[in-house]
Design a protein that fits this description.
Helicase, Ruva Protein, domain 3, 5-stranded parallel beta sheet, elongated, Sigma_54_int_dom_ATP-bd_2, Sigma-54-dependent Fis family transcriptional regulator, Rossmann fold, phosphoprotein, ATP-binding, alpha/beta, about 450 residues, AAA_lid_NorR
Length: about 450
């Protein structure tokens, strides 16, 4: 932090010089001494950080000068130094904005020294918080979080921009690993709620019997093991955003309680009697098709319509054209920075290998692949043999079995049919084949099963 500018306004020259000398022992303090209020005000271009103000000045009364200082800059802490030990006078100064009140005596120098140290610590803390906020805003700016130039991603940008300018609920859908949580944070940290809490709740990670306590909180003694009062997630998110990830995993019987909370914007803790109002923006996410979940009676229709708000569908990585290469470059740069390495490039053969792979694990899998490639390469260039793909997902197209082209073709068609909910027209368009090819395959499979 920069050196601290301290103003001392004191008409007793000897006492003022004493305070200035004492404070100037700290090389991080720039101390300026003024004998009257007029000189203090005329030197505000020096941008004081702290003002030490004598109560009785010859030209301007201490309380009047304090008010003038506060009119110029209400954030500057002012320490009143006075020969009066009148408690009412001290209280009056504190009421009109003084930070502290110090009585003139043999201990004034030390008291002032300690008061300024505390102020400096608070200023450093505020400065650190502001820096963290700036870094947080930078971290969640669109260009740093949602990397890509594909039309699919441009559409996501448009919807995020629409979301940040209002309080409509947002529902984010997409396969696992596509970055649903990143989109949720981008909305929050680019909205006017960015300085308020962002509370994320993973529905799949909370046991059914603890959901209500996590959501709504509980009172001390509400049940066995409730040794103290707990504030629920909705109340914690007041003024900010609550992000309910994997919302489709919420138990059907608890969905009605969630619906009531969202409708009424209030919660009643377990064991509590009075409802507590909250004001939080709701963002939900799921990798499942909520419409299908409603049709299958796994998700309440009334809750669906309450939470759907602005829908944002995140495309899988394999449908994002050359975004794979942009993301790869981004992850390489992150790895280099975190591990303090020299620049690493990626060869044409490695790029080709990445583009041919379907990435069933999406962006999360790509980052894992790139991190490993950075470790395995020669430290200068990532080649194709440095790139290793996982074979955990049985639906990926990392072919290891010896099958005929016809067999593999059938597998590909069936995979896309399943993905497109057996929509033959959509599948034919995606694979650039005739509908008759798909119908013939289905007829053959039906005949073989008889």
């Amino acid at each position: 932090m920069k050196a601290l500018n301290i103003f001392i306004v004191e008409d007793d020259v000897f006492f003022g010089q004493t305070l200035k000398y004492h404070l100037s022992l700290n090389p991080e303090y720039n101390v300026h001494l003024f004998e009257n209020g007029k000189d203090c005000l005329s030197n505000f271009h020096l941008k004081p950080d702290i003002i030490c103000l004598d109560f009785g000045l010859p030209d301007i009364a201490g309380d009047v000068l304090l008010k003038k200082i506060k009119e110029i800059n209400n954030k500057i802490p002012v320490i009143i130094i006075s020969g009066q030990e009148d408690v009412e006078v001290a209280i009056n100064f504190l009421k009109i904005g003084a930070h502290d009140y110090i009585v003139k005596n043999n201990h004034t120098k030390d008291l002032l020294w300690n008061a300024i140290i505390k102020l400096r610590d608070n200023m450093n803390l505020i400065h650190e918080v502001e820096e963290l906020k700036e870094k947080l805003e930078e971290k969640f700016s669109f260009e740093n979080t949602i990397i890509g130039q594909s039309e699919a991603i441009k559409s996501i940008y448009t919807k995020i921009n629409k979301a940040i300018n209002n309080t409509i609920n947002v529902s984010i859908t997409g396969e696992t690993g596509t970055g649903k949580d990143v989109v949720a944070k981008a909305i929050h940290y680019n909205s006017d709620r960015k300085n308020k809490p962002f509370i994320a709740v993973n529905m799949a990670a909370i046991p059914k019997d603890l959901i209500e306590s996590e959501f709504f909180g509980h009172e001390k003694g509400a049940f066995t093991g409730a040794d103290s009062k707990k504030i629920g997630k909705f109340e914690q998110a007041n003024g900010g955003t609550i992000f309910l990830d994997e919302i489709a995993e919420l138990d059907y019987n608890l969905q009605s309680k969630l619906l009531r909370v969202i409708q009424e914007r209030e919660v009643v803790s377990i064991g509590g009697k009075s409802p507590v109002k909250f004001n939080a923006r709701l963002i939900i996410a799921t990798h499942k098709d909520l419409v299908e979940e409603v049709k299958n009676k796994n998700f309440r229709e009334d809750l669906y319509f309450r939470i759907i708000g602005l829908p944002i569908q995140i495309p899988p990585l394999r449908e994002r054209e050359n975004d794979i290469l942009l993301l790869s470059k981004h992850f390489i740069e992150i790895f280099i920075k975190e591990n303090k390495l020299k620049p690493i490039s990626i060869s044409s053969s490695a790029k080709s290998k990445l583009l041919k792979y379907p990435f069933p694990g999406n962006i999360r899998e790509l980052k894992s692949v790139i991190d490993l490639a950075c470790v395995m390469c020669d430290g200068k260039t990532i080649n194709d043999d440095d790139i290793t793909f996982s074979n955990l997902n049985s639906d990926n197209f990392y072919f290891t079995e010896e099958k005929s082209l016809k067999e593999y073709t059938h597998e590909i068609i069936l995979h896309h049919l399943k993905k497109n909910n057996n929509d033959v027209v959509k599948t034919a368009q995606k694979l650039d084949i005739g509908k008759s090819t798909i119908y013939n395959l289905l007829n053959t499979l039906n005949s073989d099963s008889k």
